[in-house]
Design goal:
Chain lengths: 280, 282
C-alpha cells in the first residue's frame, strides 16, 4: 500500500510543473517603473531622428519628444538599439526594448502584432505637377482621365492609392527598387504629368531643384497618415501612461514647439487638430 | 505513516484545480490562431443587407469588414445572422467574435460590450408637421408635458427622447412596428414630433411630400457614432480593429464606401480630419 501511495505521489509531484500555471510575466509597465527607464529601439529618418556622425549626438522630432516625455514622467530614456522598420516588431515582442521611439505609421499589418500611441502629428502626402501646370489645382478629379499619366513605384502605398482613386489615368510604373528621386525626375522630365508621394521627400526635391515641379494646390494635404511611436500589444497601463503624458504635451504646446523647431513651414507634417472648438 | 500520506495527497489534490486553471483564451488569441474573424450581423440597409433577387450580401459595413479582413490578412466568416435584440448575446456566448453591422455606440450598450472607433456618424433630427412653427425657435420648447413625442420602445427614438426631452409626454409604440410609423403618428396629429435619422425621413417625404419637415436641418439633435461591436476587456483585439478602421478612414476607403452607399447627401457624416491644414498647404 505504502509503495503504491509513494508511486502515486511521485507521479503527481512530477506532473505538477506541467499543470501549474507559470507565474505572470512582468509587464512592460512594471519593468519600466521598476528600472526607472524606457529602453528605446530606434530608426533614423530625416527630420524625425538623426545622429551626428562626428559627435554621436541625437536630434530630431522624436529625440526631443522622447526626452520631454521622459522628463514629464520622471523616467530616463535609454537609446538602446538601432533597428529598421522591417525588424522592430520582433524587438518589442521579445522585450529587447520597451518602445520603438521613431516615427511609425499606424497600419493594419503592424496592428496584428503591436500597438501605437496617440498620433503626435500626421505625415503629409502631397500631389506634385510641373511648374505652371494648374490643371489639377483644387480639381484632383481631373487626374482621372486617359490623357493624364502618373508615375508610380511598383507595390508602394501611393501606387495602390493611384490605382484605386485614378483608375482611368495612364500609369508609368517604376520598379520596386526605384528611389523617390527617380519618381520626381520622371515628372520633371515630362515623362508623366503628376505624382503622389510623401511631402517630406517632396520638400527636399523642391529645395534642391527649384522651378521644376510644385505642389498641386489643395485645401488640405492629399493624405495625412497618423504618426506615433510603437509599443508592445496588450500593454494597457504602459500605453495609457505614455498617451496621457503625450496628450498633456500636445495641450501645453510642447509638441507644437518641437515641430516648429524641425519643420517650421509644416512641409512634411501636419499638426493634430485641436480637440476643442474655439468661439470666434 | 499511511494517514500522513493520505492527508498529504488530499492536500495536494485539492490545490490542483487552482493550479491547472489556465488563463482563458482571449478573442485576439482565438482570431489569430484561427486566422479568421467570425461575424455576427443584423440586417440594416445600407449597412448589411441581402440583394432581394440574388440573395448576395451587400452593404457599406459588409464591404468595410471584408476590407478589414484583407488588410489584416484574416478571413471574414459571416457566421450568423441575428436580430437586433439577440446580437449582443451571441457575441457574449462566443458564437462570433465581432458584431459586423452598423452599431450605434450608446451608453446603454457600453455596459455590456465595447465598440470600434466610429467610421461614420448618422445625424438624428427632430421632425414635426410642415406648418407647425412651435419648435422652430428652440427644440427645448418640446420639453414640456403639453407636447407629445412619438417613439418606439427601446429603440433610438425612445433613448433620445428620454435624454433630451425628459418632460415631454411619450407616445410609445412597440419595437415590432416599423420606424416610419413614427412619422405617420406626427402626420396624423397623434404626436407633435418625433426623432429620426434623415434617410427614413427623406424616403417618407418622397412618398408623402410637403406634410412633415426637419425642424432645424443645420443642427442635428444628436450624432450617432456608427461602429462595430467588440467584446469587452479585449484590448489587443480592439486596438487591432481600431488601427485598421482609422487606416481605412485616412486612406479614403471609408469615404469611397459612403459615396457608394449613401442614398441622399448628408445622411452619413464622415469623421472630421484629425489634423490641421496650414497656409502652405492651400
Amino acid at each position: 500500500m505504502k509503495r503504491l501511495l509513494l508511486a502515486f505521489l511521485f507521479v503527481l509531484v512530477s506532473a505538477l510543473p506541467a499543470l501549474a500555471v507559470d507565474a505572470p510575466k512582468e509587464s512592460v509597465y512594471d519593468r519600466v517603473l521598476r528600472t526607472g527607464t524606457i529602453r528605446c529601439g530606434y530608426g533614423m529618418w530625416d527630420i524625425h531622428l538623426k545622429k551626428d556622425p562626428n559627435t554621436g549626438k541625437f536630434s530630431g522630432i522624436f529625440y526631443d519628444y522622447m526626452e520631454a516625455l521622459g522628463k514629464a514622467l520622471n523616467l530616463k530614456i535609454e537609446w538602446a538599439e538601432e533597428v529598421g522598420w522591417g525588424d522592430y516588431i520582433a524587438g518589442l515582442v521579445n522585450d529587447r526594448f520597451d518602445a520603438y521611439c521613431t516615427v511609425v505609421g499606424l497600419n493594419a499589418e503592424r496592428a496584428r502584432q503591436v500597438d501605437f500611441l496617440t498620433p503626435l502629428f500626421f505625415l503629409r502626402s502631397d500631389v506634385f505637377a510641373r511648374v505652371g501646370d494648374a490643371r489639377f489645382d483644387h480639381h484632383l478629379e481631373r487626374i482621372n482621365q486617359p490623357d493624364v499619366t502618373m508615375t508610380t513605384i511598383e507595390g508602394d502605398l501611393y501606387g495602390k492609392i493611384a490605382d484605386r482613386e485614378f483608375p482611368l489615368a495612364k500609369k508609368l510604373t517604376l520598379p520596386q527598387l526605384a528611389t523617390t528621386a527617380e519618381l520626381f525626375t520622371s515628372l520633371a522630365d515630362g515623362k508623366s504629368d503628376v505624382i503622389i508621394t510623401d511631402a517630406s521627400s517632396g520638400a527636399v526635391y523642391l529645395h534642391n531643384n527649384p522651378g521644376k515641379i510644385e505642389r498641386v494646390k489643395l485645401d488640405a494635404p492629399y493624405r495625412a497618415l497618423p504618426a506615433s511611436i510603437s509599443i508592445k500589444g496588450g500593454e494597457y497601463r504602459f500605453q495609457r501612461m505614455l498617451d496621457i503624458a503625450t496628450i498633456e504635451m500636445m495641450a501645453n504646446g510642447t509638441i507644437g514647439q518641437i515641430l516648429d523647431k524641425y519643420d517650421p513651414q509644416r512641409e512634411a507634417v501636419a499638426d493634430a487638430a485641436d480637440p476643442v472648438k474655439v468661439k470666434k | 505513516m499511511n494517514n500522513l500520506l493520505v492527508a498529504f495527497l488530499f492536500l495536494l489534490a485539492s490545490t490542483l484545480p487552482a493550479a491547472a486553471d489556465a488563463p482563458r483564451e482571449t478573442v485576439f488569441d482565438r482570431v489569430m490562431q484561427a486566422g479568421a474573424i467570425r461575424c455576427g450581423y443584423a440586417i440594416w440597409d445600407p449597412a448589411v443587407y441581402k440583394d432581394e433577387k440574388t440573395g448576395e450580401m451587400k452593404g457599406l459595413v459588409y464591404d468595410l469588414v471584408n476590407v478589414i479582413g484583407k488588410r489584416l490578412n484574416l478571413k471574414i466568416a459571416w457566421a450568423e445572422e441575428a436580430s437586433w435584440g439577440t446580437i449582443v448575446e451571441g457575441m457574449h456566448t462566443g458564437r462570433y467574435d465581432m458584431i459586423c453591422t452598423g452599431l450605434f455606440a450608446t451608453s446603454g450598450r457600453a455596459k455590456v460590450i465595447d465598440f470600434s472607433d466610429p467610421y461614420f456618424y448618422l445625424p438624428v433630427y427632430l421632425v414635426a408637421r410642415k406648418h407647425d412653427a412651435r419648435f422652430d425657435v428652440s427644440n427645448e420648447t418640446l420639453n414640456d408635458p403639453r407636447y407629445k413625442i412619438a417613439v418606439l420602445d427601446g429603440e433610438l427614438s425612445s433613448i433620445l427622447a428620454a435624454q433630451v426631452f425628459p418632460k415631454a409626454t411619450v407616445d410609445s409604440m412597440s419595437q415590432l412596428n416599423d420606424v416610419p410609423l413614427l412619422l405617420k403618428e406626427v402626420e396624423t396629429k397623434k404626436a407633435d414630433a418625433t426623432v429620426i435619422e434623415p434617410e427614413t425621413f427623406l424616403n417618407y417625404d418622397a412618398h408623402n411630400p410637403g406634410l412633415l419637415k426637419i425642424v432645424d436641418p443645420a443642427h442635428p439633435l444628436s450624432l450617432m457614432a456608427t461602429t462595430l461591436g467588440l467584446p469587452q476587456n479585449d484590448l489587443a483585439f480592439k486596438r487591432m480593429i481600431d488601427v485598421t478602421v482609422r487606416e481605412l478612414i485616412f486612406d479614403g476607403t471609408v469615404a469611397a464606401l459612403v459615396k457608394k452607399y449613401e442614398k441622399h447627401d448628408g445622411t452619413m457624416l464622415l469623421p472630421a480630419r484629425p489634423f490641421q491644414p496650414t497656409e502652405t498647404q492651400k
